[in-house]
Amino acid sequence: MKRMTLQKNNSTKTIQEGFKEFYRFCRVKNLSEPTLTYYQETLDTFQNFYPLSNQISTINKTITDDYVLFLKNNSNMNDISINTKIKGLRTILYYFMELEYMDNFKIKLMMAQKKIKETYTDAELKLLLKKPNLKQCGFAEYRDWTIVNYLLGTGNRVDTIVNVRIKDIDFESGYIKLDKTKNKRQQLIPLSNVLAKVLTEYLQYRDGEKEDYLFVSVYGAKLNGNSLGHSIKKYNQRRGVLKTSVHLFRHTFAKKWILNGGDIFRLQKILGHSTLDIVREYVNMFGEDLQKDYDKFNALEQMTEVSKHTMVKPSKMGSMR
């Protein structure tokens, strides 16, 4: 009779079978739909290089290294996009390693130079923030103008915005309650004076009950992320602004915050990041904006300004021997 052991028999499990387990594990953890889609797309891309019918145990460092080269030579992805694919695959494979479906090894990202994040310029913001004529415009245009104000005044993500309800705007205390966030933690953020005035007027036209969503379609239905993004794209184009990304408002919020002297710790809390790592990257987005008032705040310029009257003029110095 064969002796029973506790050794797992995972040597024949295929990548497709393992991913079904991983996907279920992610759902049990209550990960967001965009995250689940990201992992599915990660696997779809990997499938173009390595068949999912292969056994998980066949994957090793040589395979993952060759996959990186495959992406570099057979796709139009830049290094940052390739790293995004590697991160997703690494999460999946580390799950397999933890369950002893495959041997352990480190999967490192490529060295990639991060590009300066694009933001809206002041000139573009002036065009977007110009209030429409309420006697001539329709509800959709006025709502989109309100959303632009909200975006620039909060830095919220799209998935958060479409889930804000009227009751979440606390005008008396000066806060907005966010129930739908990326890290799934309820959050309170400050409500600025200007945004409070904009929303107060908007709600006079929007009307609705406290449980209703703040931003809705012309028929009163809840907006989803795609419909909001599409509306803002058309709104921007009608205003003559070629940039149409909703997420750029988040970058712009962070940029303005730091350039105006806001500290990164509060910015971290407002943007809902769990660590300061991503917030620190916003410092790299400024580009030419870092040159603004550089001499005014530069330590060497300040010291030179203070001591310029005490400096010895070259003509008074003895000659070099």
TrEMBL record:
PROSITE patterns, per the entry: TYR_RECOMBINASE
Single GO MF descriptor: DNA binding
Domain Tyr recombinase: 115-295
Keywords assigned: DNA recombination, DNA-binding
GO biological process, one term: DNA recombination
PANTHER family: INTEGRASE_RECOMBINASE (PTHR30349:SF89), PHAGE INTEGRASE-RELATED (PTHR30349)
Name of protein: Phage integrase family protein
Organism, as annotated: Alkaliphilus metalliredigens (strain QYMF)
Species classification: Bacteria, Bacillati, Bacillota, Clostridia, Peptostreptococcales
